[in-house]
Amino acid sequence: MSARGRPVVETPVVDLLVPRDHTSASGPGDGGAGKARIRAVIGTVVPPIVVATVVVAIWLVVSYEVLSPRQRFLLPPPQQVIRVGFLDFHNLSEVLRGLWSTTQVALVGLFIAIALGLVFAILMAQALWIERSFYPYAVILQTIPIIALVPLIGFWFKYDFRSRVIVCVLISLFPIITNTLFGLHSVDRGLLDLFRLHGAGRVAALRKLQLPAAMPAMFAGFRISAGLSVIGAIVGDFFFREGQPGIGRLIDVYRSQLASERLFTAIFFSSLLGLTVFWVFGFIGNRAIRSWHDSAREPE
Predict the structure, then answer these.
(1) 176's torsion region: left (phi>0), alpha (psi -120 to 50) or beta?
(2) Mean pLDDT of 207-216
(3) Full-prediction pTM beyond 0.85?
(4) What's the pLDDT tens digit per position in 89-102?
(5) What tens digit of pLDDT does each residue of 116-155 get?
(6) H, E, C per residue of the chain
(7) Which of 6, 19, 72, 196 has the greatest count of CB atoms below 10 A from its CB?
(8) Which of these, 151, 143, 135, 137, lies nearest to 171 by C-alpha position?
(9) What's the pLDDT score for residue 24?
(10) Residue 2: pLDDT over 70
């Protein structure tokens, strides 16, 4: 009894210390976070597998039911593509050598385009007259069909590795300039005024405020240009035929020989190269901004 005559309900100390169930012992959010991660992985992996299964099924139906045996070279069945293009060592090694040559051209052109694009975008972000002077020519460069410039590039720089790299740069440059310039212009004006109020110069504001704020847009441009650089390398292979043959030249040779199985193999590795470069820049971008930008955070 208490001093006022009311009964006192005593709670055992053991009940307060021992968890009532397993969820409270391991933390209230651990199970939910693990299930959310599993659902995210399933949601990322399963849909592409389902789509690929449907595509292969349609492929088989068209090969065996729609096309006659004499027309089957137009769309050979997938098992025949695997047997000729992937399991034949000679054919596979030829495609892989071409893929390596195209990869070198695409990566060199992409990195040059990144360097040039960042420099031009930063310069245009510093003064409006610089942007008005250079940006229209970047738009014109993007709108001119690259096929129209390829003969001139061959005349001026010959038909070797250097010309293919130039084609990659021309195709990949515009998205980097546009996205980086957009990111630099998207900085909160109040934060920029605060930097200037504390005496920060252009270089300090660019290094500590504008470039970090522009990183999501910059990496979006890098990913777009990554795919375009592979396209540029393949286009260059079609026209510039000196040096190590790339996968674009192999595609042209297989087309002329009606070698459908090897043609499909070359197309597969071309798309795989583009996806790989695109994924690498997406991975780097997510790791660079995941700690502070909402677009790179994992769903809870």
Answers:
(1) alpha
(2) 79
(3) no
(4) 998 999 999 999 89
(5) 999 999 888 888 888 888 888 888 888 888 888 888 888 8
(6) CCCCCCCCCCCCHHHHHCCCCHHHHHCCCHHHHHHHHHHHHHHHHHHHHHHHHHHHHHHHHHHHHHCCCCCHHHCCCHHHHHHHHHCCHHHHHHHHHHHHHHHHHHHHHHHHHHHHHHHHHHHHHHCHHHHHHHHHHHHHHHHCCHHHHHHHHHHHHCCCHHHHHHHHHHHHHHHHHHHHHHHHHCCCHHHHHHHHHCCCCHHHHHHHHHHHHHHHHHHHHHHHHHHHHHHHHHHHHHHCCCCCCCHHHHHHHHHHHCCHHHHHHHHHHHHHHHHHHHHHHHHHHHHHHCCCCHHHCCCC
(7) 72
(8) 143
(9) 44
(10) no
Question: 126: exposed, middle or buried (C-beta count within 10 Å: 0-12, 13-18, 19+)?
Answer: middle
Higher pLDDT pick, 254 / 45? 254
* Type of residue numbered 163: S
Please name the residue that has the structure tokens 């096309």: 67
Q: What is the total residue count of the chain?
A: 300
